């Protein structure tokens, strides 16, 4: 980290804005990390997705703090957080909301569903029926809700954090590739380290640490940060690098399905946010490398040979990253 | 198949295999006398490839492909060479098979009968087309179906051996290069297809991804890389055997060096051995008889021994090739040939008895001008020996027209011993180990002779006059370890024509007279006015000496007496020239040579009476001119300097590269570029791993983690990394001052952490020089 900050201190051009982003983001991050101990990289990617206007898929075994992470993120930004527990009998209207006939006013009134929030936490999204899943995914993609022929825009920032239990669990509807593709990144929280778990025992004994989180940024701040992130410079060389990397997933013999063009866009956007969180006005191949697995791996399907060899898409992607030459200046 | 599969790979590899096979045809070209032999074969290979490609598109089991291709070759052969009996002109019938098998039998006959370059006959064409079509099937099977392109080289190697074994000049370099190029193409195409399966061959730019130009470009790059490796491999393959002792004389090298020792070189029993066998034969069988217009016919020569190896005279291999074939034309003119007047030409009609030993060299008068003979006979242009690889002269009759040179002694005495020689200098070559006493003896014998001719005559007479030597067909064997020449000249003095001629030829060479030993028959005995008979006992060896302006002339050092070689005659010119010498001449004039001989033996016995171990060796070296000069200090110093310069060359080039890079860096971008490339090359030089997939920042982090750099070096490294990173990815580059000294700091700091050996290697043999490099 010391090298990075030193290198970035050389940065000129647009530093003020980026530095502002960094200051605010640091506050949010420390707030989240007060709840999720020892997972700074996970938190950083969650923040990256927030700033890159993407949606986050958290996939892990139960009880490692998936929901906690999503809640902490929502509370540390002063915005509305809604939580939806996905169950098989959940209906699309349970998410988007319904129009109800108002007896006194003699008209239909729209009762907004839980999706009308800044951060929507979809717990165990794979438990809902495909119909309900796709209702949420439409909101994710369009940033708007259409009910009874009326289209209502969702407020910005809008981020869906969905959690999913991996493995073959009974009565689940795993997200199809097309829907997984809409999530900007997938992360796993993972078990905490021994020390982090010890600390956790202490911090969780008195009261939930969520209670003590104070909002570190307003929705307005987040909007400003998002705008700032959009202005981060991406050199042609890095754009080429992203395209090459995505193309490599499409030609790799270890993959049955490569990454989509949407993945390319997501990767560049995420890299911008990642660079901003590093207090940099331009994207480096390092940002792309750090984000390649979280942004690309969940969209890929391994080939039968790779499955036989127990190679996961994550391994294939990191293998590609370690072999693809970084772009030179020409 | 992914979408990258499909059309291209299935065609590219078979096409490359076809081109490779066709290129390899060029190696066979010198074997044939006329061009145009390869059309049918090329058509067969084309058919093979076409069938291979067509069947790869259908779902035919792979095992059937070679079978179908073999059928295709058979149809091609039928269509081209026996279309009249075939259905539709190409489907073979029983009749066409029998016609083809007749042709094939003829072709094999041609192969057996002819030596390269062979005339192209219909039978040969069938054999060639069938076998080269088969080669095409083999290459297709190995390279395309089994995907073992490298192994296809073995099949091509088989083709190399054809010209190596049957053609006297072996493989021409151009044909070899063409074949190698074709093979490399095959390897490159195969490699490119294989690496395409790895999925990481990212096209140069995203826009130009699937255009034809970019694909060609990537193929070209692949080919360049292959060529890079191939050139190194070929150069190593050619150079390493030269450096490894014992490998140069390897059979393969012998084959490759023009096939002088293999192929159509004529092997014969040692002429001297057969000479001895003949001469000691009890039966005294008739070898040949001849009719000649001459009253005193000359000897009949068979072999010329031109090399003295310290013990024996041996014959250089001769080669039978098309251009040496004996035909109606005059034979080539040998060195120093004097065009004879018409009346000097003599005709000799020789009939070889049918009961002789195998005879592959013809007994002929020298110099033969024209030879009328049936069968495949060849001539060695330098010595005019006439021979045949399958030689059978038994029962043969032939007619030779020869010049009969009879220069006078006086004329020969006027020829100069100096001046530009018109004869190959190898006729003066002697090995190092010849006993120095032989030279002293030769010089003392010819001490006061004024001309080359006088020296030659003095030498000859020294052998023949008096009772100095005893003629004996079975001399005592030479003691173990003794030099046969010195033993004959100084100890034993017993021998027959072989020893006499050998000794005189060696001594003549030592006197600077080109000499060689001829083996053949004497004139034999006359049975009527123009008929002569030569028997085994007439077998003989004699020296031939070269005279400027007169050519090769025979001398006769073997004593002529009834119990020796009765038919030996001394030629008329081999007597001392009258005006030049004051001493009595003729055969009886033994006084002068006798004297010199006495002096020679005296000095020689004086030396041998006090033998010094190793004395001969010292004399050997003392005999040269080296001892006169002082030790060549300047040469040694220049040599050491050259070696040192050679050793320092890589370091100097590396320094030059550094200077050029910094010299080109004018702006911030250039400076950061130079610093970065220098950092890269320094790392490569020091043996630190360089990963193309690592970003500048990633490299910096790795270096800091793996090496305990001082804070100063760390700062320098960070500045270089930051400058390169900004130049590559940031909107504005950094200023980049002082990067040169930063580079030096990092280099020294990294070097200090490496072993001494790595440091020395980095300076003297910088690895960055032979990795691919961009300025």
TrEMBL record, chain B:
- What InterPro entries does the record tag this protein with? Bact_TGase-like (IPR052901), Papain-like_cys_pep_sf (IPR038765), TgpA_N (IPR021878), Transglutaminase-like (IPR002931)
Q: Which SUPFAM superfamilies match?
A: Cysteine proteinases
Give the matching SMART domains: TGc
Region (Disordered), start-end ranges: 557-623
| Compositional bias of kind Polar residues | 558-568
Q: Which keywords are on file for this protein?
A: Membrane, Transmembrane, Transmembrane helix
Signal peptide feature range: none
Which residues are in coiled coils? Answer: none
Which Gene3D superfamilies does its entry note?
A: 3.10.620.30
Q: Where is the Transglutaminase-like domain?
A: 489-559
Name the UniProt record assigns to this protein: Transglutaminase
Q: What is the species listed in this Swiss-Prot or TrEMBL entry?
A: Nocardiopsis ansamitocini
